[in-house]
Amino acid sequence: MITNTELEYKGDLYPTKIVAFEHEVDSVCFHTDNSVILKVTVLRDSLIRFRFTTKGYFSNDFSYAIDKSHSHGYNFLEVSEVEDYYQIKTSKVQCRIQKTDMRLSIFDLEDNLILEDELGFHWEESYEYGGNIVKMSKSSKDGECFYGLGDKATQLNLKGKRLENFATDQYAFQKDQEPLYKVVPFYIGLHNKKSYGIFFDNTFRTYFDFCHERRNVASYWAEGGEMNYYFIYGPQMQDVVTTFTDLTGKPELPPLWALGYHQCKWSYYPESNLKEVAAKFRELKIPCDALYLDIDYMEGFRCFTWNKEYFPDPKRMVAELAEDGFKTVVIIDPGIKIDKEYSIYKEALKNDYFCKRADGPYMKGKVWPGECNFPDYTNPAVREWWAGLFKELISEIGVKGVWNDMNEPAVMEVPNKTFPMDVRHDYDGNPCSHRKAHNIYGTQMARATYHGVKRFAYPKRPFVITRSAYAGAQRYTSSWTGDNVATWEHLWIANIQVQRMSISGMGFTGSDIGGFAEQPSGELYARWIQLGVFHPFCRTHSSGDHGDQEPWAFDEEVIDITRKFVSLRYQLLPYLYTMFWQYIEEGIPMLKPLVYYDQDDIQTHYRNDEFVFGNQILVCPILEPNSLGRRMYIPRGQWYNYWTNEEVKGGKEIWVDTKFDEIPLFVKAGAVIPKYPIQQYVGELEFDELTLDIYYKKGKEKSVVYEDAQDGYDYKKGRYSFLSFQTIGKEKELIIQLHKEGKYDTNYSKYKINLVGLPFKVKEIEIDNEKVLFDEKTFGNEGYLVVYKGFTELHIIG
């Protein structure tokens, strides 16, 4: 007898009609007659989860991305049934699920359509691996724009793009190259002045198509796992980003020194070379807080070891650098050298901590040390072991931070640059292959590193940086954009990457200033420094293969520009620290693309270059050589040119003249900008006054300043200072109101107030209803006023 046993290729499959539903507390489950289940969970009035299964039951619900420490809650939930659809209504949105095919649509309360399925959920059986390739397609409205998706080397607006999420070691990547190091499957849609977000929480290789294949269709799909996504309603982009950041978690405050300037190279060795670099920074008076050691500090690239020829006494060296204000940060990679004499290897082997292939042998791959095995960081026991390995580095030697690299994971001399897909992982008790665990491997390494550094740095705060990350990694680590190139195009890319990371939940990010690969000209390095000091993470890093990249590797003019802009960053540290406080407290991104800042202004929808640093400083880098000016868009409102104090009305594109030692910087009218004196490192100086640059505005404007002890955890006990300034500008008067919260008392006793843009000559000053005498020679329109910090209301009268 001859039988045909060939598998039937079924193609795309779809849910059929809904035959039953049940509502339990915050969830509603819909069942179709072909065993599809849709579970809709209302987490908040504007945050709804959609989870599909095609097998009639759900697998264990587990996610590395979601911050489980946060509880959710809604104000209103109503489930109803009409002839053609079921409706789930909250106090913000209405979700309708069609009875015939389970397609859904979401409206606001005024019946304006926000998002609707095109084909909706569908799937294809994966005959090679089992399970499904899960797919979703949504209709896109005319004029709709798309943003987010984390680390992408392309235009800020993703309309017309197809993108791939698979953490990949992309040395010297190019514009529009896919995929890159990080995976953040979250995007923001904007149409008709309304924003929404989609977070597709699936760790398999995922793809997003924003009207690339079909003009009015946005789609996303994964090579395995569930169709599991979160819908977030704005209607402002600020609301979408804040909700997503809250969903996936926020970091704790870093130590203030981590927001200073950092210097790195592959590699600084021996010790004398590192000491020379440190001494040169202090000699040239270029502020710097951290120096990094790359893989050459290790003995044969073995993690947690020291090359005693290069660094004979690391504890002494680290202490001596610390005396001069430098914190030492060291690299740790995931590959553990296969060496029976190496204690870390022996310990992991004994405890069976390494990743295994499907048939049992340990996963083996070549990295810097040669052949290596790799810890399975998805195993809680392995993470606990890994955390304990940092004791000597942190608590005994005195290293202040750890840098995780090559953790995509990267493997050399193999076609796909990473683990074979059959490698097995524990996945916190949900065993799986590397297909599922690949995108979160780097995050789990950073997580284990964070817990180790935190444990042994206590009572100080930890500092960790990672190259690879999945959504939610910001709870544990900062990041950088990987192995970029010293080109003008990469300067453009870095500007967009860090903006995009900021609105994708991962705010503490920067690029390798000057480019990692190849060698920048002095002009390119200067322009990159001028941008990099306005990124939350600020570090020069280079491969060292193409020459030196310290500031003094260039001419005197570049040294002066570097000093000027790094010094400006150190002056702005209280402003930057306040940005970080608002990020961890409220989920507000530290960098704001113009479309985030004012989504109702259609002119912002395709802007790439300009961004708002914090809430009140507008930055526009110079991205082309030989430029002494550029055109840029000024968002709506009143702004002051930082260099000239000239007032500019926004809502238009203008030409801005610059010099080689300037970039276009503008300050929002009404802003109060706090400044510290220039320090060579955080904590170098004790000072008795905080400078406040106050920019006049007719009308009201609020500014805030957050300060604490700059390290440690007392801020969590209420020992912080949170100042709220309100400026009220009138035709002949400027009123400055101050309210303080928190139990921390700052070291300084007074404010030095610089007034910018006053439209009147000052005739009288009142502090808390008492007139103050002043000398017009020293206090005019461009003068300053010294006020003791306890005031509550200051009147400047013309």
What does this structure look like?
The protein is globular, with a radius of gyration of 28 Å. The protein contains twelve helices and 51 strands. Helices cover 18% and strands 32% of the residues. It starts with 17 loop residues before the first strand and ends with a strand. The strands form ten sheets. The chain has a nine-stranded antiparallel beta sheet with strand order 5-6-7-8-9-10-17-16-12, with no helix packed on it. A nine-stranded parallel beta sheet has the order 31-30-28-25-21-20-19-33-32. The longest helix has 24 residues, at 434-457. The model has no long low-confidence stretch (mean pLDDT 96). Helix 5 (380-388) packs parallel to helix 7 and helix 9 runs parallel beside helix 10 (556-571). The protein is an alpha+beta fold and 798 residues long.
Radius of gyration: 28 Å
Mean pLDDT comes to 96
Q: Largest sheet, if any?
A: 9 strands, antiparallel
Compute the number of helices.
Answer: 12
How many beta-strand elements?
A: 51
Structural class: alpha+beta
As a percent range, the share of helical residues equals 10-25%
In order across it, which strands form the biggest sheet?
5-6-7-8-9-10-17-16-12
Span from first to last CA?
Answer: 105 Å
Residue stretches low in confidence (pLDDT < 50, at least 5 long) are none
Choose one word for the global shape: globular
